[in-house]
Every structure is written in C-alpha cells, then in structure tokens.
Prior knowledge:
Blueprint: H1 2-23, H2 26-31, E1 38-41, E2 53-56, H3 58-68, H4 77-83, H5 89-98, H6 104-116, H7 123-130, H8 133-148
Amino acid sequence: MSQDIEYRQQLLAEYKKEVIPLLRYIPWFESNEGQPGSRMYQSPEASEHAIGIPVYDATLLNFVKEASKTSLMDRNYCYTYTRGRIKTHDDERRAIAQAELKDWDVLRGILSKYVMGGMTKSALWAQGVQENLFLLVLKKMQEIIEYWDRPLDIR
C-alpha cells in the first residue's frame, strides 16, 4: 500500500516538473479561445496567385518550443488515437474531459499531436488554439495534479 502511494507521489512530482512551466500559457489560451492561432501574410506587391505565409503569434510559438522540450511529448501519439478511437475534435474533447491520472498518456498523446505534428503540418498549431485543445489539455493536467497532490501556486 505504501509503495503505491510512493509511486503515485513520484509520478506526480515528475508530472508537475513538466507541466508547471506550461501552465503560464493558460491565460493566453483563454483570451484566444476559438480564435485562429495564426494569420496569413500576403505581400502587398505579390500577384493574385501568390501563396500567403502563415504568421503565428509569438506566445504560441514559445509554448510550442517549450512544450516540445518536455517529456510530455509522445512520438507514438498516433497509437493513442487508434487505441482510444479518437477521430474528431469532439472525440478529443471527450477524451480530455474523461481523463484521470491513469489516462495521462491520452493527454500527452493529444498534446503531442498538435505540438509535434505541427512541426510538419503547422496548421495543427492553429487548430490546437482554435479548437481550445491546448487549453483543455493544460487545464485537465492541472486539475489531475491538484486533485492528487495539492493546489498549484501558479503566477
């Protein structure tokens, strides 16, 4: 019994170390709920057939950069989607809402899809903001940690 408690405390300590630096982005995600995380730049001199370049908010890029360096990134996030039969944004939101401590890997998988997947398909970063997935994952991670440990002092 005490081994279970020690193991859980060790897990929570690791999770907190990775998640706490990312929680400072929650206010930015809340203020940009439902907004696209990027805009298209079109040069004024460009012809009508020119391709626009996506320009991302600096805060979003900082979040992606910081999150990609954590152990929260799961290179096999595709398996999370297959195992959980997650196909749509609604499925993702449902999985996030139902997640508990034992489902931490599901939260990591969803976060990884939008952070790591965005490295090759940058539209995923904008989707993560617009569909509130970054916000929901971070809030759920915070909720799980606070439930099993104690309220976090985030400032």
